[in-house]
Amino acid sequence: MTARSLTRLFSADLAVDLGTANTLVYATGKGIVVNEPSIIAINTNSRAVIAVGADAKMMRGRTPRDVVAIRPLNDGVIADFKAAEQLLSYCVHKSHNRKMMVHPRIVIAIPSGSTEVEKRAVLDAAYRAKASEVYLVEQPLAAAVGAGLPITEPSANMVVDIGGGTTDIGVLSLAGIVYSQSIRVGGNEMDDAIVEHLKREHGLLIGERTAEAIKMELGSAAPLTTPATIPVKGRDSLSGLPKIAVVTDTEVRTCLQECVQVIVDAVRIALERIPPELSGDLMERGIILTGGGALLKNLDKRLREETGLPICVADDPLSAVVAGTGKMLSDFKLLRRVSVN
Fold first, then answer.
1. CA end-to-end span of the chain
2. Which end of the chain is less enclosed by CB atoms within 10 A, N or C?
3. Is 240 left (phi over 0), alpha (psi -120 to 50) or beta?
4. Rounded Cα distance, 13 and 103, in Å
5. Which domains does the chain have, with CATH numbers?
6. 37-89 residue pLDDT tens
């Protein structure tokens, strides 16, 4: 095999962050080539794919009766196997400019503590999407690599990856996981809390896209320096007519409190369960936050107050996991060492 064909072969390798909210794909030599919402629109009669990613997200709440826009993953695990396979196939083909004969080697990040059944579902979906080899890596470890942490050193590194469906907490040392925990709380549950609050307190019905926008605009884990309000459009729960309500940052923070507290408690439990020697390392190194949830305003401040440790948000928290899995494509020795399948 010539050097040119070898380059072409390995350039097919992909790293995938198959998330509940978004799916990101990293291609060798290209960087991130896919960053799409993990949503697929399907014709319920023919099962034909109508749209994927951003196009499918725009259809949520607007589809005709014979089309449904769904999330193939729920709480970080596959809920609809066929839809997950179609989503992965779309990502593979888009990554290689729609070439149908590509059979890449794929590294996929999965939540910590995934069951054997859940791992098998991801593996089967990837192989059905025409992967030649599939490797599974736990999300905290991938996020740590993507954030630039020295995971191979004999000292503690702690990462909290807050995704759409799960929050994954990992304490790492010597390229291994000393402690890990995955809790079913993430950005989607925060969105649901906002939807329920507006329905209960304002009699206003909104969709998940509006809830997400409110969370990004007003959501916080600790009081903001400057109070803020925004008008929110929706439907009156009683009359069914269009309605606008003014929402404050205080009430959004209040309705997110339960989700934030679950994350804080999980971090505290992790710190209580690791060896004392590693606790000393964390006094210096602190905790790195990754994932979309790391962008929640003042979450780093809240965790700093609760733990007394330095808290840092990764430079690019949204892409830390896929960046980490991407780096493993060029360090196959490390990949084989840390893969869980």
1. 29
2. N
3. left
4. 9
5. 3-141+321-338 (3.30.420.40), 148-314 (3.30.420.40)
6. 999 999 989 888 999 999 998 888 788 889 999 999 988 889 988 899 999 98
